[in-house]
């Protein structure tokens, strides 16, 4: 059963100023999200934009937005095969439990100027 669906789009150039601002990165991203994103500057902004879109989409799928959520409690990483995976901690894990969802599905894409994320929350 689907509990919620969320989608978000982020303009990649919005992340340009974030790449060089450690305080902003630490505020919005889990520490394990940051390092893999920096293989190249262009790729880093696309990866950060996609991950930020995923955080926004997660809030939309919950139906509550990002209220009472710490964005760094939402971690988006890639499995060895490249498939994105979302891991939740603290405020985000509690929000997921409260929603009744037991599984989070994620899809990310990015093109030169935009990154998009789709989140589907699955219940029991």
Topology summary:
Blueprint: E1 2-11, H1 16-19, H2 22-28, H3 31-34, H4 41-62, E2 74-78, E3 84-88, H5 90-99, E4 101-110, E5 114-123
Antiparallel strand pairs: 1-5, 2-3, 4-5
Q: Could you give the count of β-strands?
A: 5
Gap from first CA to last CA: 7 Å
CATH topology: Ribosomal Protein L22, Chain A
What structural class should be given to the helix and strand makeup? alpha+beta
- Largest beta-sheet characterization: 3 strands, antiparallel
- What series of H and E elements makes up the topology? EHHHHEEHEE
Strand order of the largest sheet: 1-5-4
* Second rung of CATH, namely the architecture: Alpha-Beta Complex
| CATH hierarchy, class | Alpha Beta
Query: Per the principal axes of the C-alpha atoms, what is the gross shape?
Result: globular
As a percent range, the share of helical residues equals 25-40%
Task: Output the number of helix runs.
Answer: 5
Count of folded domains:
1
Within CATH, the superfamily carries the name 4'-phosphopantetheinyl transferase domain
**Uncertain runs:** none
Radius of gyration: 14 Å
What proportion strand? 25-35%
Mean pLDDT: 90
